[in-house]
Specification:
The protein is of the alpha+beta class. The protein is about 40% helix and about 15% strand. It contains 13 helices and eight strands. It has helices spanning about 5-10, 15-30, 45-60, 70, 75-85, 95, 115-125, 150-160, 205-215, 250-270, 285-310, 335-350, 355-370, and strands at about 135-145, 165-170, 175-180, 195-200, 225-235, 235-245, 375-380, 400-405. The protein has a four-stranded mixed sheet, with helices on one face. A two-stranded antiparallel sheet has the order 2-3. β2 (about 165-170) and β3 form a beta hairpin. α2 crosses α5 (about 75-85) and α8 (about 150-160) crosses α10. The longest helix is centred in the last third of the chain and has 28 residues, at about 285-310. The protein starts with a helix and ends in a 9-residue tail after the last strand. Residues about 1-10 and about 90-110 have low confidence and may be disordered.
Length: about 425
Amino acid sequence: MEEKEGKKEKKVNKTKEEKKIAEIWENFFNISPIYRNDDFLLLGGDSILGVKILSRLNSIFSKNIEANTLFEYSQLKDFAKLFSENKDKEINKDILEKPLSNKDRNGKIGFTSLLDDQNLIWIFEQINPGTSLYHIPLVYNINGRLDFDLFKQSIKIIRKRHIALRSLFLIQKDITIQKQEEDFYDDSHEENYYNIDHIEAIPDLENRWILDKIKEKFDLEKGPVFRTNLLVTGESSCVLCFTFHHIIFDGWSAGLFVKELSKIYTSLVKGVPPELLEFEFSYHDYVSAKTSEVNHYWKTARVFFESYLKNLPQNYNRSSLDLSDFSGACFPVKIDANTYSKIKNLALENRTTSFSVLLALFQILLFAETGENDQITGIAYAGRDRVETEPIIGFLMNTLVVRNVIKTDLSLNS
């Protein structure tokens, strides 16, 4: 924003909604001050940032404003009106907080069902036991002396804090459930989830060790669903290999895990108790609330999917496919700076994100290849649309269906 425009804007007093929104934008964009005419998209906003901002504002103002409205009304002064004028978007604050709050259970749940995407992973594991397709590895080379005892203690603390890291999956009355392992492993069973090996610092041997640890099978019924393996390669060097099963872990959780583990270990080294955020509810509480919500929305979506799937072509020849090989093809695409700038500008012109533009182009490409104008694409969604869910480790992601009916008589902008 030009300085002249900024000075002129100072004379206009912000409403209480504008002040609160400006405060949150300043925090996320690390820009101060934020003016009434500032634009979310021009400041560098994207869909992930939008979800985080909306989760806080909906909680503060007891509203139910959808994330896409932030792109349609991206100027602060226009966006603020949604919170001051939209009476039909108001919801009772008790209702807003109730679905995920289970304080009366003291953080303990006997069992809960699985999210839809968790169910898909579970079914895959039953059909294809022993594969490492859904293993998520985090591997780090550590240069410097690591206190093994304090590190092991750090792992214990983070396992205890996050119920997802202690979950078991089993069949109960013909239904797949997940439950807390309830101290299934005592000190004599630590080797199940924590192990130290020693080896000479030879790259080929290290790589082979890493691959072996990553591919090691998980038993979802007996646990654990998360392992820590440490390879000592010298007096002050080692390799850390964390392996998580995807059924309890997602990409968002990876960042949380590393950040929190680092904080815990650093505090223990300093000899002070780690200052950690107390959770208002557990991951299993989230799953319980989400499955109830999904069951409600499925009643509406079922009519469309039954009709759509019924009309899919059935004559595809799969006899030539090797169904035992899960290797996927990859086609890397490099986007130069000039092209990327054009994509960003196109997104701004259409009040959307670069991701949306690229997704539309991808669907148009599929249309050009297949001749099918009704394109449906699955995309991964973080599922963290509540402030309280942001610090929780677990499988919260969801696969969203994005439908685009392509009409050749319309322009790309249309």
